[in-house]
């Protein structure tokens, strides 16, 4: 079984890109690296961005000073990696305290970790500040593993990667301001009430990323003023009074897709979450609807 949760570092990504460029196909790369073919396909699709990131990192490394205490540096980064795999938030003061603790354990005596030392450590290991978000940390790993090992192989066995699709909705709060800002030192950061004006966007693609459907955008108004005199949109636009996905919109979307598949004599598998707008009693012979287990969507 491939490791679905293993983080793939930049060097591994570059190795995969070079391997594909040398003539080794994606399936063989996935087998050698013990990862899903879809992961390899995603890496290949983003190869230019990954190459640029690798080049930028190489240029940064040339300017980075080597640590005075390499053993403390390595022990601290190993500790940091383990804590992050456990989704534990790490602050600057906590990192400094851990560095001092590790120094004492390795060398004895006291070591005062300065802000400069911490900043150089962060640069050496490409660490920056990020906002904790999402619900993936609350997902039951046992439920995920059971679904992937016991149920998923039987579901997917009769479908090629190009015939397996995943679709999901996301909210686009188009008037909401960012929740972070640059500020003067000592300035109190306050903000007003955030706008709740939104569109709902349905996003759907196959597992290879080669087939990406036109976005389905759901707004509050049937004929928004901003669309006046516009005859062609780059998206499919639907409406209801709350700008949400509804079972009627979802079923009509599937029926239009079904007609195309029927003419092509093609059958596909569509993975969706089990929200109320995705009814389970849809009977379309060319589309098999499969519902992801509850509360596991963010990981699976």
In short:
By secondary structure, this protein is of the alpha/beta class. The protein folds into three domains: 10-61, Arc Repressor Mutant, subunit A (Orthogonal Bundle), CATH 1.10.10; 64-124, Arc Repressor Mutant, subunit A (Orthogonal Bundle), CATH 1.10.10.60; 136-179 and 192-291, no CATH class. Helix content is 41%, strand content 12%.
Q: What is the strand tally? A: 6
Mean pLDDT across all amino acids: 84
| Major sheet characteristics | 6 strands, mixed
Largest beta sheet: what is the strand line-up? 4-3-2-1-5-6
Low-confidence stretches: none
Order of helices and strands: HHHHHHHHEEEEHEE
Q: Work out the count of structural domains.
A: 3
Apparent shape: globular
Distance between the termini: 15 Å
